Structures are given as C-alpha cells and as structure tokens.
Amino acid sequence: MLSDLRPHERQVYSQFGEDGVLEHIFECIGTTNRRFVEFGAKDGVSLSNTANLRLHHGWTGLLMDAAASRSDELVSHAFIDAENVNALFAKHGVPERFDLLSIDIDGNDYWVWKAIDLFTPRVVVIEYNIFFQLDDCRTMPYDAQHVWQEGSCYHGASLAALRKLGHEKGYALVHTDAWAPNAFFVLRSELPADWQDRPTEELTDWGRFHEPPGTEGRPWTRV
What we know:
20% strand; alpha/beta; two-stranded antiparallel ribbon
C-alpha cells in the first residue's frame, strides 16, 4: 500500500516525483471531494504539486501565492501567515474537510500548518529544511513578515519538527521525496488499523548535516 512510495515518484508538473506519489496515495486511500489547497503556488502549473490532479484528474481547489498578480484568475494573491490562514480558507469557500493541502512558503511553514485548526486535509505535503540532523526538532521562530531570500538556507523547519507536529495533529509521515525536500503526511484515520510508523532514517536520504549552512547566529526555535 503506502509502505514504499519511492517507485511511484513521477514528475508531470511537480519539481520532482511529487505528482506520482500523490497519485498513488489517493489510489490507496481514495478521494472524497477532490479538493485541494496549495500555497505558495507560483503560477499554479510550473513546479506545482496540484496541477497534475487539476488538469488530468478532475480536481478543483484554491491556489495562493504572495507573488501572484492581483488580476491573476488562476492563483489568488495572498501573503499567508498564522493569523490569516483560517480566514483565507473560509473566504475562498474551502470545505472543512478536503483531500490535499500543499505548503511551500519557505519560512513559516511549520507555524502556518500548526495554525490551521478549522480545516482538516486528509493529506498534507509540506517542504522541510534538509540541513538538520534527523532527530533535531527546530524551526524558524515565527515572523509574520518573513520573506525568503533566494539561495538562503535560513527557512522552514526540520523534518523532525514537522513529524512531531504532524503526530500532534493526527498525521503519519509516509514519505519524503528522493530529490526534493517535501514530506508527505496522511491522516491516521485514513490508514489501516495495523499501520506501523517507519523510522525517519528509512524515509529520507537527507539529514546528514549538523546545521543549515550560512545560518550561524540566526535564531532557531526548538519545538
């Protein structure tokens, strides 16, 4: 079922193998309303984790990005933070329970996911910072105004921090991309009763670093 998703990695529009992984996850657990939310969504197609589902599998949903044009009909312009994320979902008519949430905002990813408490996605794919050891639970401190500086390793949260948060929110970590820093979580209620969590070292090839390079003196928060 979901015990080894590496063979299913396949790129259609996504950065690496996310498209194939998501296809297989939903083949295994089924779909409900085929609704998604993705932020930051860029242009909604290139490097998107939801374009394949939208364009080839009949899905619909909400795309948001801080860099989107305010006249863009596909991607809504929004600067997302922990204070406004639930209100943005409600404003755009996101159902309380939906199939997929994709988070890639290069900064407050941990805090925004933590803040989502009025909505329940069945699957979450979220970017993590690969430059931490596998048991290091750290994230950037929350800064609602944070904007990622291209090329900087000062962003996001460690995989351990996100796995801990996912557990608190009722999710199991089922996969990370071989070549991209994306982690895939599925609601435990959607998994078989005999589901057994796999050790993190079996789920990622990253985690061999001690500290994100070039971030000496920058603050991190242990969670």
